[in-house]
Amino acid sequence: DIQMTQSPSSLSASVGDRVTITCRASQSISSYLNWYQQKPGKAPKLLIYAASSLQSGVPSRFSGSGSGTDFTLTISSLQPEDFATYYCQQSYSTLGFTFGPGTKVDIK
Amino acid sequence: QVQLVQSGAEVKKPGASVKVSCKASGYTFTGYYMHWVRQAPGQGLEWMGRINPNSGGTNYAQKFQGRVTMTRDTSISTAYMELSRLRSDDTAVYYCARAVVVVAATRFDYWGQGTLVTVSS
Known about the structure:
The structure holds 2 protein chains of 2 kinds. Chain A is an all-beta fold. In chain A, 0% of the residues lie in helices and 47% in strands. Helices cover 0% and strands 54% of the residues of chain B.
């Protein structure tokens, strides 16, 4: 099984801050990496797919990068509606579409 | 517009089974895999498996092999996830999610609203 890790597990930031979240896979997954945002009591929402492609309707302040084992989600200027938990997910192995443990972004 | 509407909350006793439905609308049901993901209270997302609504073929996470069954009824564009021999640690919100596959890359672009399953004696 491919294991996914994320860092940090949580962070506190202010509106307008640049925020970076890191995701690492236990083996190379090429660019088969997605990012989701989840707010309390809601279903996850797709933000980024194939490591760096922005899902339709998602603000351009969200961006993704990386390939192989190391990936990054960046929010260029944090907005009030961005306080949420963020999950990475690998889609390299169809035997298990593993998610990372999540990174909670809250207000400083 | 694409919508996935799941069945309502369930309370089950340990050892029982639960069957959650996911009704799809706004797209061709047989054209997209349907996946199931669960989330225990305060925890992260856990992939359970997927079904090809066209063929009925399934793939399950090893953890759930032997306990989970995913089916579909194409006549009503509905996918089902049944989990048997429930334990207290199966208490979770269960989501269905539509998968888009482009150049072998899968992403979950639409999700159901979630179904809370509580397992308690």
